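Narrative of activities, Objective 1.

The group set out to show that a structural description can be obtained from nothing but a protein's sequence at a throughput compatible with the screening campaign. Below is one input-output pair from the validation batch, recorded exactly as produced.
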Amino acid sequence: MAPLVVGDEAICSFGFSFTCFGNPKTKTISHLVITDVQQGSRAESIGLQRGDEIISADGIKVVDFKGGAARGGDLMRLFVNRNRGETIKLVVAIHTALYRITLTARPASSSLGLAP
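Output recorded for this entry:
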């Protein structure tokens, strides 16, 4: 699948998409749950699957993210506004165990992204 492009820039992805659960009124996030894993991605090769939950990103617990899903918030800064080659360090709950993983941003296909 071709990379997702906005303007002349390829949007980057870490190889998975997720759904964000929270309260839009208070701009708080309670859960980030993986909904899709890109075939052939590092995320797939390390075993991320639909239903796994992201507990923290780059040392910030999901429940402590500031700004909800707004453009200037932690969610966008950590997962969307990243350049090719940048890394993200995640703690992910897979079944009942917690795993620390590092993923590198690469051009995204049009099938991945954020879900409301």
